[in-house]
Amino acid sequence: MKTKRLEEGEAEAEDGNLKRQKVVGRQPSSPSPSPPQLAFDNALLPLASYADDDEEEEDERRGSSNGVAENNGGRLDRDSIEQDEEDDEKGPSQGRRGRMVEVRKDCPYLDTVNRQVLDFDFEKFCSVSLSNLNVYACLVCGKYFQGRGQKSHAYTHSLEAGHHVYINLQTEKVYCLPDGYEINDPSLDDIRHVLNPRFSREQVEHLDRNRQWSRALDGSDYLPGMVGLNNIQETDFVNVTIQSLMRVTPLRNFFLIPENYKHSTDVLVHRFGELTRKIWHARNFKGQVSPHEFLQAVMKASGKRFRIGAQSDPVEFMSWLLDKLHKELRTSKKGSSIIHQCFQGELEVVKEIHGRAIAERKDNGDVQNNGGNGGTEGNNVVSETSRMPFVMLGLDLPPPPLFKDVMEKNIIPQVPLFNILKKFDGESVTEVVRPRIARMRYRVTRLPQYLILHVRRFTKNNFFVEKNPTLVNFPVKNLELKDYIPLPTPKENEKLGSKYDLIANIVHDGKPGEGCYRVFVQRKSEELWYEMQDLHVSETLPQMVALSEAYMQIYEQQ
């Protein structure tokens, strides 16, 4: 009996030891019940008590075991950046490592938001690390910082400066740091609209009927679409080009809705769309826009052919920009785009090559059978006829008088626009030297919806650039082309639109190679004219438009 009781006691003791071992083994993985852990670690909580040191050390050990790297030499932890990006891509209820992200409507720091310092026109780069990954804007001081994790620059800035409200520049979500919760408050919608302006199709259709002024935060009034552009450094040639293109209604309407060009991956296309939406946005915090991001995209796409700090020709920039946008917007190699729908016309070109030029071509083996192009040969003259598309027409000015008497000293030569348009009547001959001496005749066979005219004022020789000061007399309204140049006969049930109205006129002031550019543009809602030079926007009379030295003009077909 005693031995049986001893055996039963030993068995019970062994069972008890096993149970205790199981309980001890479960303790690290299943601690005592505690409040649910939120999706953020509040860095301010340990400051309230000095009895949490052991818990902090345990958290640090757990963090190091999870593979969280230390912040070496001020460099941002890559894992925390990627995790922040994953958190922002998830919905509002999911967060880091699958835990819940708290969303609050009442944040005690919303009154610290300072809209006066917010400027979203510049590139989205962290002010510390100069990275464009996962960048947040501090809504208190306006600076950009990377990430929102505990080792990020935004988190550090929130502790050092006491600035707690941040917006993700890509997802437009607003967070409170260092607490880490998301803020869902409708009072922040105006900031989101300034960061990424939005237009509905109905708003776009009624844009030209709007006569209402908008008010900036500083109390100044501005007209949407008539805002000044900041001249960063000798970038007035870009500003006048952009302001002119903003008057082309189909082009503007196309770029106001990002869905129209979402198929394009080109940065320049999207930067141009952003700039268009900012210029026409009626809820801006300030009455001007800085095209900084667009200029950076232009510098990169053009290989620094057009860059900040170097004056360039707006005609060259317009040609390059329209060609680049067309190539990036078309869906196939021979496809059309909104650029060609607006600006492309067609010319018939007759090229006559005479005696010596023909001999040179035969010596070089350049003579080919031009029967397909309508080429004819006779009397030692080769005539080639071809058709080519155009986006811009160049007009040649008559040379200014070389000698002036005392009475004509202050008289500026003038020429009517119709005289220099005769270049395209199909009969006037234009002598060209390059690539070989030839006589050219041009005739317009198809008119575009928007006609761009370029007056060639500058001539370059081996020594310097000369500017022709001749004034061109042109009508502001009702330019009737069919009275001066022969136009193709329209097809059946088709109306030939040959009447044009001026909508933009770019002017050059000053000496060649120096000087500056300004532009006269029309506001359609009231048919008023405005003079724009960088940040300066002022109303002017239509008569003043015609008195300027026109360099490039855009006409709209009636």
TrEMBL record:
A single MF term (Gene Ontology): cysteine-type deubiquitinase activity
Keywords recorded for this protein, A-Z: Metal-binding, mRNA processing, mRNA splicing, Nucleus, Spliceosome, Zinc, Zinc-finger
Main location: nucleus
Domain UBP-type: 105-202
Key word NAD present: no
GO biological process per UniProt: protein deubiquitination; spliceosomal complex assembly
PROSITE patterns, alphabetized: USP_3, ZF_UBP
GO cellular component: spliceosomal complex
Domain of life according to the entry: Eukaryota
Region named Disordered: 1-100, 361-381
InterPro entries to which the protein is assigned, alphabetical: Papain-like_cys_pep_sf (IPR038765), Peptidase_C19_UCH (IPR001394), Ub_carboxyl-term_hydrolase (IPR050185), USP (IPR028889), USP39 (IPR033809), Znf_RING/FYVE/PHD (IPR013083), Znf_UBP (IPR001607)
Compartment(s): Nucleus
Domain USP: 227-558
Family to which the UniProt record says this protein belongs: Belongs to the peptidase C19 family.
Identification of the protein by name: U4/U6.U5 tri-snRNP-associated protein 2
Source species of the chain: Escallonia herrerae
